[in-house]
Amino acid sequence: MSTGPQKSPSEQLATPVQFLKGVGPQRAELLAKLDLHYAADLLFFFPRAYQDMSELRDIDQLEEKRLSSVVGVIEEVDLRNIGPGKSMLGMLLKQGTRYLRCVWFNQPWMRDKLAIDRRVLVSGEPKLEGLRWEMVHPRVELLADDEDAPAGRILPVYSLTEGINQSQMRRIVSGVVESHAGLVDDVFPDEFLDAHQLWPIRAALPQIHAPNDEASLQQAQRRFIYQELLVLQLALAIRKWRLSHQRQAPPLPTSSKIDARITRLFPFTLTAGQRQAIDEVTADMARPFPMNRLLQGDVGSGKTVVAMYAMLLAVAHGYQAALMAPTEILARQHLQTLSTALAASKVRLALLTGSLTPAERRETLDKIASGDVDVVIGTQAVTHAVAQSGVEFKKLGLVVIDEQHKFGVRQRAALKKAGVDPHYLVMTATPIPRTVGMTLFGDLDVSTLRESPPGRQSVHTYLASDEQRMRWWHFFRQKLDEGQQGYVIAPLVEEAEAVEAANVQATFETLKSGELQNYRVGMLHGRMTPADKESTMKAFRSGRTQVLVATSVVEVGVDVPNATLMTIEGGERFGLAQLHQLRGRISRGAHPGYLCVFASPASDEAQERLDAFTKTSDGFELAELDFRLRGPGDLFGTRQHGLPPLRVADLRRDVAVVEEARRDAQSLIESDPELANPALARLRRMVFHRYGEALDLGDVG
Considering the entire predicted model, what is its pTM? Predict the structure, then answer.
């Protein structure tokens, strides 16, 4: 009997999940919540963790600190508060006549899944507390009453949704792996797999879901981690190659005459680091294709001077330059710095920010279009909106993007217009961990400023507890009486701008009626109008205000040389990079800075972060440590950069693989810039499918 035409492998991989063994329409709806719609989705739905069931033990066989799994019945569950916003959940697990206590901190939601008399499997590191074994934060898996605990193998642990438990998910995935893993074509040719010692995909898929042993699991993971990172690095390498071979930019070379005219405007000698960065920037700007350079430097390393040189080089050739800052406060500060430095020159400056009246904005835009402005200083939001609305610069030669971590590859791609491109210089004072630099900024060349210009003051950093408050405030007032100024940074609040503003208000009022009642105190937060922010900053800059109570809005770039004091409240809530940026605000004048952090670290990690902050002032060292402790986080989150998130690779753990994938990608693109080799057709398709839109690479072609 004929069963109709045989489906191709790609059609079989596109089978809707409801038609797979053990799924059906109801479960298909649940799987859709996990974004699992087709057979292929389940094949690549990798476990989020693994349980080594070879360590399944009875309670009387447990050993201290040795990862173990125990099956038992829940006898007691107890949830209690142990402080503001803190809770402890305890569970007593019975196995025959013996007991194991399990404890979770600040996870009250787990209470609902732990029903008395329920059979469970717990996995963790046991510790003997008195005469009873205890596990802190073990992993828990619910077992059916008649379900045997799987023993002697490594089990996958999948992300779940309400209505599907682990054993059901394991059965579903296992069935798909058995029926469909052999249909998946490899994106790598055989010789590539051999050269890089990678498992073929048909061998790796079954082992990443149900590994025979630890060695097989590592090989399978390595295959997919390398593939994911190589695809990203190939996309970045293609973008970089195209920028230098398919885009045109005005060549703006320097000369000894131009160099002398520009450096004459600086009332100081350039440091060796600044000179080197300027040489790298000018070499890029002399070429007929766009510079795409990242200038990273520690707090106070003098990046603005390098940017100023680049902008003046553009102006010297009759081109315009745009400097994009993240906030209006910073844009106005840049305007002030440039106005002072260029007072004796003929360079025409204009400000383009949200607080301009419609008439002022129109007038400024007309001047930009007619070429009556040489350097435009604007906020990124406004400048971007202007670019989108079709307003043209008469002759734009350079764009400098200051302090914008979220201005990643996708946003830079969006700024590209047809025809002649400007040169691009991206600046950041948050040193970028190496692996992040190689991924999120992988399409940029990098210049690094490590040294500070002469005359930068050191900052004495202290970590204090509440008992030391009186002593600190006494010292703070003493320094104010000597004519210095200070900041007080209110605790960071995650919820919303409104809550953060209230927080600043409350800190302000407490200080005004307490420790600083005889001093002139101002306040700055995100909900104020641009005009109010500017008048607050003006009062602080001029010395009319002695102390500024603020959110971390001051972390980037605010420059008041007489401010040498800082108090940070709730220091445990800030990342190391943020703390370091804040500290940079008080090393700008003639006096040394003094910073005191009040904190209540609730974890070893928070304590390690704060200890490191007090011990070192090297931003590069702190950036690597912050990255190791907290991961890329929001600061370098790939979502903000418009890149799809990584699924299996971890930038903290897989440093060596990132470097290997980068080398291999560069080598492939050098010899075959568009991956035109037919043997690489599947790999090319994958690169364009995953990153084509985000990196403006176009269609697969």
Answer: 0.70
